[in-house]
Design goal:
7 helices; about 0% strand; single chain
């Protein structure tokens, strides 16, 4: 980046190292970001560091349905299908309900038989003979 007379000679090196290795790219960025910006433009180098994908979220319409059923309903039975279809299939919505009121969620899980979609594979013992 600093001790060369010809940037053209270094472009292949920059492309093969900085264009493929996020730690090396970050190192160059910390070394001299302005020089790196120039190299990116001149040598056609792109950052190999990708930003993490956006965190999945619970849609506002589903949040409203869950909130209404958790707090503003006279019949929990009417809300069980909503809880099962939203909370039983969407981890972000399940987490939303958990943050709203975990105690209410625990009750709903039992009463409506809602499964936690955030759990990975579970081993279920069917009888004592399996031990």
């Amino acid at each position: 980046m600093f001790n060369t007379t010809s940037i053209d000679e270094c472009c292949p090196t920059f492309q093969s190292i900085l264009g493929t290795s996020c730690p090396c790219y970050k190192y160059a960025e910390d070394l001299d970001n302005q020089v790196l910006i120039t190299l990116e433009a001149y040598c056609d180098v792109s950052t190999p560091c990708r930003s993490p994908p956006p965190k999945p979220s619970c849609p506002a319409s589903d949040q409203e349905k869950v909130k209404t059923c958790m707090f503003n309903t006279t019949s929990i039975d009417e809300c069980c299908p909503t809880f099962n279809s939203i909370l039983g299939t969407s981890c972000p919505c399940y987490k939303y309900a958990e943050d709203l009121d975990n105690q209410v969620l625990i009750t709903l899980e039992s009463y409506c038989d809602v499964n936690n979609p955030c759990n990975g594979a579970q081993v279920i013992k069917l009888s004592k003979d399996d031990e």
